[in-house]
Design a protein that fits this description.
Elements (H helix, E strand, L loop, with lengths): L4 H24 L5 E5 L6 E4 L4 E4 L3 E5 L3 H22 L4 E2 H7 L13 H15 L8 E2 L6 E3 L2 E7 L2 E6 L9 E2 L7 E6 L3 E5 L2 H9 L2 H4 L2 E5 L6 H14 L3 E4 L4 H11 L9 H4 L5 E4 L2 H6 L5 E2 L2 H10 L8 H13 L1 E2 L12 H13 L4
Parallel strand pairs: 5-6, 12-13, 12-14, 14-15
Antiparallel strand pairs: 1-4, 2-3, 7-10, 7-13, 8-9, 8-11, 16-17
Length: about 375
Amino acid sequence: MSTDRSDSDDSARERLIDLAADFYDQFAAGQIPEMELPTRTKSNIEYDENSDVWVYGDRTSTRSANSVRGARKLLKAIYTIDFLADQLGEDRSSTLRELYYLSESWDNEEAQFSDQDESNQLVEDLEIVSEVTREDFHMRPEESGATLMGPLYLREQTRRGEREIHCQKDVGEGGYQIPNNPDTIEFLDHDAEFILCVETGGMRDRLVENGFDDDYGTIVVHLKGQPARATRRITKRLHNELDLPVVVFTDGDPWSYRIYGSVAYGSIKSAHLSDYLATPEAKFVGIQPTDIVEYDLPTDPLADSDINALESELSDPRFQTDYWREQIELQLDIGKKAEQQALASRGLDFVTDTYLPERLTEMGVL
């Protein structure tokens, strides 16, 4: 369900201030200030049987002021908390890129960020310790441009007030652009049967041009490559709140399988938000290595980096099923990969008239 913006802002600001107060209390008690965080590595990812997603394990690391490096990190955290608290108090927002540049105006040079990766990671740290998402900090990435198209009627809260939108009738061929914080959306009505998350823009356009969203009651979500958090969040909300199946349609290569994995099980980088972002019930529809063989699709040879990625996925906890083991081993055996658009070798309508209907029927979605 969508949340009241002012209540959410007040709660986020309070959490940030509490975090700063905790540092102060450590100082007052004569302790060296520190901040404990989960270790964000693949080896510290574990399967949570209660939520069916991958989360951080018990291993932690400590940011402590007992070293110059650690003291700098905590100083930067304090300055960032101050900036975010002021931003929330003024009901303003900023991008992750702007935060990096804004730090150059801070009065203490030691608090300034050396690059954007550093500021991005600090925002993630603050998410973890405060248990507040960056969206509720009013922080957003650069525009992702991800969209959806389908028989969905919604209400969106904007700075210019509420607006009601039908995601077919009230949008152009580009579809409805997913906002940075999808929790500002209320779903009003729909005629959808399932959600189809599509990796590439070319395939998304093919499905819309061929009327796949109309013919099969499909909400087509364009992932735009590795999906942004907003894209994964709205997909999860559509699944949970409208009880719609989710299927993911990508290229047939190891990097695209990881796109599916991030939708279904979460990613190492955002494992602290798996319950918020991941949809473990999501299914993979293709392109499968078996499709490459069965349909004799045009292919490219696997590069060394592809082979290494596939071998890595054989031990990746997100791909520990018989299905994925068989598909990955087959791909390593044939040494080939294929794009979604390779289905066009059998005609422009093949994907919407034959491939997807047959696969989705096999999977029990249609």
